[in-house]
Amino acid sequence: MDVLDSKQTQFGFGVDPFNPRPARPVEAVGGDSKDSLRRQIVESCPRVPGVYGMLDRTGDLIYVGKSKSLRSRLLSYFAASNEEEKGGRLIESARAIQWETQPSEFAALLREQQLIRQFSPRWNVQGVPKRQRPVYLCLGRAPAAQFFLAPKPPKECQAIQGPFFGAKRMGVAVDTLNKVFQLRDCSQKQTFQFAEQLSLFEIDHRPGCLRLELGTCLGPCAAACTQKEYANQVDAAQRFLSGATDEPLLELQQRMESASRDQQYELAGKAYQSLRCLQYVHRKLTMLATARRSYNFVYAVPGYDGCHTWYLIHCGEVSAVAATPVGRDAYRQMKPMLSAWKATLESSVQRGHGPFPYTLGTVASWFRQNRAELKRSFSPSQAGRKYHRRSMVA
């Protein structure tokens, strides 16, 4: 049965939070053979930016991608040279393909990221050779904060950074960070007792593991530290996550060199592996910290179809989106919004983690790879002088 005829199939991608205009139409083709799918793509798919989704025989969305030329990208899946690769195996599983055009490559990039987060298509997150699942490095979990990994940023955390790639590598990094900052790594089921907490009876609180004796944990489960002492370590951990310090790397470097001098080569090897993992984390944190400090502006992106868009970039994140005003009347109507955007950028309280915190890595990578695009940025107070030419395709 053709998947397009299945009543269970629900086409469409849903609401686009980065589209300030009416919803863009979604087109779909379906068939039981690769030749049928390819022929329909040739007939109906345009060569413009957009996102696409692959659906299996049950109508489930199994993969989401983006391209600055939808037709070229989709046809590449049918190439003979691609049969043994990911694309060839993916198209063998697909029975329908849907796409949604976007006004620009940047818009398609944001939409793809949002759709992957919303639907978690299985071919995006598993079963794809050499693909690494994104994870977020988090600091939190009361009453004694710890480093941990999460596939999506939790709502209640003291600090979150990412996404990072490579679950195994990040697992080593989390284990190392908890030890370096002497934070606990036990489960939430563990009972915690800080030194200043009073008790009716004198109780000998025993630690839940050996890390207290090894000096790699302050022991919040055994009344071995006060809440203030533990909080000081959490503050130091936050400084590392903000990219403000590289102390953990220096400590591991010294530990590795000391073990090597003492001919403890196994310990030196473990320290080296941990150091490599933390170096990756620190490089990414430094990049994200630079984006947070540097990227605070309105980014004007022209659309191939006249749908020009302004993105408010705050602390490196996409914070708000608006259609580029065309004409003086449209600009006058947008003035209250521009005033609100100006207040957002000037706020000393807000430091990112707005409505779309997951866009930080995307924005940082985009401007690192497309430095010339920074010429399209301006402050809200400059919009009065620039809106007329920023609304036109460069």
TrEMBL record:
Renumbered residue ranges of the record's region Disordered: 1-32
Kindly give the CDD domains that the UniProt entry links to this protein.
Answer: GIY-YIG_UvrC_Cho
Note the superkingdom of the native organism.
Bacteria
In this chain the GIY-YIG domain maps to 47-125
Q: What's a single GO CC term here?
A: excinuclease repair complex
> What name does this protein carry?
Ethanolamine utilization protein
Polar residues: which segments have biased composition?
1-11
UniProt-listed GO biological process terms: nucleotide-excision repair
